[in-house]
């Protein structure tokens, strides 16, 4: 899958290059990003404490206020997330992010639905209908690769109660990811989330037809 601390590598949403494979990193922000966010939060808290001290507030009162502030921030963050879930994603990236969150929670069926939905939402790519000058926002190649690759992971991770793992569906999604420009077959082979598909005879056959190369292009 793409992007996660409990699952997949983080997708660079600005570049949208080919998906890397480390199954343990696909869900979380990078360490640099996490450190930056933690520092920003610490700076905000320090500024609040300094302002309170300057106003003559005693240390105990400051700590009480800070605790209430943290609780309020968490409540607001939770409310925003719940509202976003209730309304549904409006963009391809938002749907992919929601899918990654559900994937990390072990809701593979829900994640699959979000990854599928992302392909129908406006993305960072553009298309133009023949005979017109108007451009329409659509998923970029990178977003399409991310959606299809992660759909394959979700199909492989589904349990028996969900009719999984659904290997043939996963292979079809991987084929789609390759056709969308994904080149790193070795990444697929090394991704623990795709183990069910990689072990399937269908995967070996597709790789054989591709000449055992790392760039099968459209031979799948």
- Name the poorly predicted regions: 4-31, 214-220
The termini sit apart by 20 Å
Number of β-strand runs:
2
Strand order of the largest sheet: 1-2
Summarize the biggest pleated sheet: 2 strands, antiparallel
Find the structural class using helix and strand composition: mainly alpha
- Taken from the alpha-carbon principal axes, the silhouette is elongated
Seen as an oligomer or otherwise, the chain set is single chain
Overall helicity: 55-70%
Gyration radius (Cα, Å) is 22 Å
**Sequence of secondary-structure elements:** HHHHEEHHHHH
Q: Approximately how much beta-strand content do the residues carry?
A: under 5%
The pLDDT mean sits at 73
Count of helices?
A: 9
